[in-house]
Amino acid sequence: MVVHAFRPVISTMDLIFRVITAAHAKGTHHRLALDGIAKLSGPDAERWQRLFLKHAATLVEGSKAPDDKFKDFKNHVLHPRDGFWGGAVAAAQRWYAELVLALAKGDWATAANAAGILSHYVTDPTQPFHTAQSEAEGSIHRAFEWSVSRSYDDLKRIAAADAARTIDIPGGDDWLEQVLHRAASDANASYEKLIAHFDITRGVVDPPSGLDVVAQRIIGEQLGVASALFAAVVDRAIADAKATPPDVGLSLELILSTLRIPVTTLLKKIADGRERALVERIYDELMATGTVEKNLPEDDRAIRDLYATEVLGQKPDVPAAKPSLKTSRIPTQTLPPPTSALSRAAPAPGVREVPLEEPARPAPRAADQATPLPPVSRFRGEPAENHGPGQVAASNIVPVVALVAQNDEAPAHPHRSPHREASGLATAAAAAASIAGLSTHRSNAPTAARIHLTPVQDIVDAPSIGPKMAERLVPIGLKTVADLLAAKPDDVAGRLAFQSVTTQTVRDWQDQTRLVCTVPGLRGTHAQLLVGAGFRTVDDVAAAEPDQFCARVLAYATGIEGQRLLRHGDPPDVERIKSWVENARTAKAA
């Protein structure tokens, strides 16, 4: 008996889509536009698909026009944490109206072009790195997009393995705004995690390897959402236009006979040499200086500068010295007058940013990396002297920022399992470590925790109180830790009459001191980091979710103020930081 292996039946339309995709799609936006057309589900879906595929070149050209022609980069982003700052909604509404108008007129080539352009503004807000702004993300953004482009087929299979997703289109004139706001909010929930799980050191050598399993799942899912959302929007446009598709004779033979590339190259992934060179330049600058300025791509630079000016209230190219809490109404990016009446302005409050300050250091060139590198470590422990023989000294390692969400109540993704990966948000530190190329050494968390400060000790032993400050405090009656804790902050500040010591400064000293006196295993520098990160009491620490807690502490520790405090040394490692939460809970229960 001959047993024939089962092979799934591939429809002619499937083959047509594959051939056209291979012939015309060179990047992620090309693929998303075509994948969205493949997911059309309204009446006469296949006839509409044939029509758009007949104009595939126009469709895919339109899908990159916002990058290549318009260069309206503010319209490619939508930041939920900043009052939905960005121009994606207005741009999508404008091109949706153009699509409906062209469909109603039966101007099919114009409709394909408008649909392609629309796909860009609809799909960008579904991608996490288009929903927030940080230096940590900006430094890896272009390399990340290259990794996604080179991994698209594998990521698409991950998306196909997900449960079927439904894009709900709400009622009302502002339905498109609602849909994009929801998509951006869902994507933004993965922003920090995606930074943590992209390894630029690997990705610049072998792009697909820059995405670990977690990053692949996140992006695979978001690409599936993007194409499904575009399909739902086009279905709605067809319905609003009340258009009927023409009969289009489209055969695989016809497509193959009109190819502009050799058939032998049809199914090969074409890597853009200029893109590779750009990513390598970005990588080299990042490794050498810890940031990207000289080789920052035009679109990333435009978004960074607009964000700094309009959200943070800064002048372009001037890094923030302190977090901005300024609230302002954001003017919409200049657009030709939209033909749709759906556009609506939205307030855009400022958002707190964690800046980065790093000295330059030498690094290997990306082109010299012959093979993918082994996995890098997370942050190491504090004291350099604890490193064993052959390990990298702390003075030779530069910490890199691990940005954390400022809104801890960001909505969870509706399609994502509630189970959190073991690393959680705390692995934002891992992304920074990956960029810096840290040693694989990782110090152990403390095995025995004890209280390191008691009220009877001299005031010089309290956090932030050095010998010189102690000399000023003793004459006004503050000799011990207990004296400091019992004092009134405004009275201390007034009696010191020292310009740099304010009432808030004294409160910080007291909160730091109470933490060290209460939480086992906590030292003075640790308490300074906790207060700087917003955890001022043992209750704050005990109530914290460990991953969020760890990420916030690391974000502060790797910022300007934290690095000044640490004297540009390494932050505590992940295990040590998490141990403070457990120790605080133990102290409260005692």
List the helices and strands and how they pair.
Blueprint (H helix, E strand, L loop, with lengths): L11 H13 L3 H11 L6 H10 L1 H15 L17 H18 L2 H16 L11 H16 L1 H10 L13 H14 L2 H6 L3 H4 L9 H29 L10 H6 L15 H17 L8 H13 L16 E3 L17 E3 L78 H9 L30 H7 L7 H6 L2 H8 L6 H16 L5 H9 L5 H6 L2 H12 L2 H7 L7 H16 L1
Antiparallel strand pairs: 1-2
Helix pairs in contact: 2-4, 2-6, 2-12, 4-6, 5-6, 5-9, 5-12, 6-12, 7-14, 8-12, 19-20, 20-21, 21-24, 23-25
Distance between the termini: 74 Å
Low-confidence stretches: 1-9, 317-447
Shape: elongated
CATH class of the domain at 12-165 and 172-262 and 272-301: Mainly Alpha
* Structure summary, number of beta strands: 2
What is the spatial order of strands in the main beta sheet? Answer: 1-2
> So, CATH architecture of the domain at 12-165 and 172-262 and 272-301?
Orthogonal Bundle
Q: Please give the radius of gyration in angstroms.
A: 27 Å
Remind me, CATH topology of the domain at 12-165 and 172-262 and 272-301? Answer: P1 Nuclease
- Largest beta sheet, briefly? 2 strands, antiparallel
**Please, what is the CATH homologous superfamily of the domain at 12-165 and 172-262 and 272-301?**
P1 Nuclease
Structural class: mainly alpha
**Helicity range of the residues?**
40-55%
**Rounded average pLDDT:** 74
Element order: H for helix, E for strand:
HHHHHHHHHHHHHHHEEHHHHHHHHHH
Number of helices: 25
Strand content: under 5%
